[in-house]
Amino acid sequence: AILPAPQNLSVLSTNMKHLLMWSPVIAPGETVYYSVEYQGEYESLYTSHIWIPSSWCSLTEGPECDVTDDITATVPYNLRVRATLGSQTSAWSILKHPFNRNSRTAFLLSVHLCPELVGS
């Protein structure tokens, strides 16, 4: 069986912290590790084959990576992640749209009504 690539990549930015997240690769009873790489605007335009390993996320266990220390300039960044299980390595999954730390993040707000708090 081929190890599937991580899916559903997204970046959550809160208070200038940038977290790349993805859906985990499921392997019951096994530990899947992930590696993250990035490409700044310069690398993307002039050296497109060069990707830089993330400072903190080389063979990390969780389905997220704090890329704050990697995103140092206010330019678009490409981000990618792949899974590793034993000697198997998945294909890279790339964030659909380049991430810019100054771009506005859309927030999802859900409101739940608590009947016990509503006056009768």
From TrEMBL:
<dbReference type="InterPro" id="IPR036116">
    <property type="entry name" value="FN3_sf"/>
</dbReference>
<dbReference type="InterPro" id="IPR050650">
    <property type="entry name" value="Type-II_Cytokine-TF_Rcpt"/>
</dbReference>
<feature type="domain" description="Fibronectin type-III">
    <location>
        <begin position="5"/>
        <end position="105"/>
    </location>
</feature>
<protein>
    <submittedName>
        <fullName>IL20RB isoform 5</fullName>
    </submittedName>
</protein>
<dbReference type="InterPro" id="IPR013783">
    <property type="entry name" value="Ig-like_fold"/>
</dbReference>
<dbReference type="Pfam" id="PF01108">
    <property type="entry name" value="Tissue_fac"/>
</dbReference>
<dbReference type="InterPro" id="IPR003961">
    <property type="entry name" value="FN3_dom"/>
</dbReference>
